[in-house]
Amino acid sequence: MFVKGGRVVIVTGPPGAGKSTIARILAERAGNPGGVHLHGDDFMVSIRTGLIAPYLPSSRHQNATVSRALAAAASAYAVGGYLTLVDWVVGPWLLDVYRAEAVRTGVGLDYVVLRPSQERAAARSRARPHYPIADYDHFRRLYEQLSRLEDLEAHALDTTELSPDESVTAVQAGLAAGRFQLL
C-alpha cells in the first residue's frame, strides 16, 4: 500500500541532460502540499574527505552510499505528501537502492531518464554557468550506459530538440500516464 499523494520521481540522465532545470521546475509547479528538489550533487559534495570522482570505477561504494542517503531523504519528504524530485545520475545499476527505500516507506517511485543527443548534452555541459564541463570525454561511457536501458527504455525521453518548458510538459504527461512508474 502506497502513501496517498507523495511520490519520489528520479530525474536522471547524463551530465548536460537538463536534470537540475527540469527537477527544479517540476518541484516549483507541484500542487499542495508542495514539491521538493533534492540535488544529488549537494549530497556528493558533503563528503569532505575521501571524495572520489563519481564516474570512476572506484566510486561504486561511494555512489551507493550517496544513493542510500538520497533515497532516505526523498522518501521522508514523500511520506509527508510532497512530490519529491531526485536530480542525480541514477543508472539502472543503482535503482534497487531507491526501490528498496520506496517499498520500505510505502511511497510511489518514478524513473525519468532525460536523454538528449550526446552532442547536445556535451554542448549544454560546456555552456552551463556553474561547474561547466569542458572535456566531456569522461562522461561518454556513462552516456552510452544510459543509452542501453533495455526493459527501462520506455523511461527515456529524448530532449534533444525540446526546450526546458517542453521537457517539463513531456515529463508531466508521462507521469500522469504512468509511463515512468516503477512502484
- Count of distinct strands: 5
Mean of the pLDDT scores?
A: 93
Uncertain segments of ≥5 residues (pLDDT<50)? Answer: none
Strand order of the largest sheet: 2-3-1-4-5
What is the alpha-carbon Rg in Å? 15 Å
Instruction: Please describe the biggest sheet, giving its number of strands, its sense, and whether it closes into a barrel.
Output: 5 strands, parallel
Please report the number of helical segments. 7
Q: What is the general shape?
A: globular
Instruction: Give the strand content.
Output: 5-15%
Order of helices and strands: EHEHHEHEHHEH
Share of residues in helices:
40-55%
Q: In terms of topology, how is this protein built?
A:
Blueprint: E1 7-12, H1 19-28, E2 35-39, H2 40-44, H3 60-79, E3 83-87, H4 95-105, E4 108-114, H5 118-127, H6 140-145, E5 156-157, H7 164-177
Parallel strand pairs: 1-3, 1-4, 2-3, 4-5
Q: In words, what does this structure look like?
A:
The chain is of the alpha/beta class and 183 residues long. The chain is built from 7 helices and 5 strands, in the order E-H-E-H-H-E-H-E-H-H-E-H. Helix 1 (19-28) crosses helix 7 and helix 3 runs parallel beside helix 4 (95-105). The longest helix has 20 residues, at 60-79. The termini are close together.
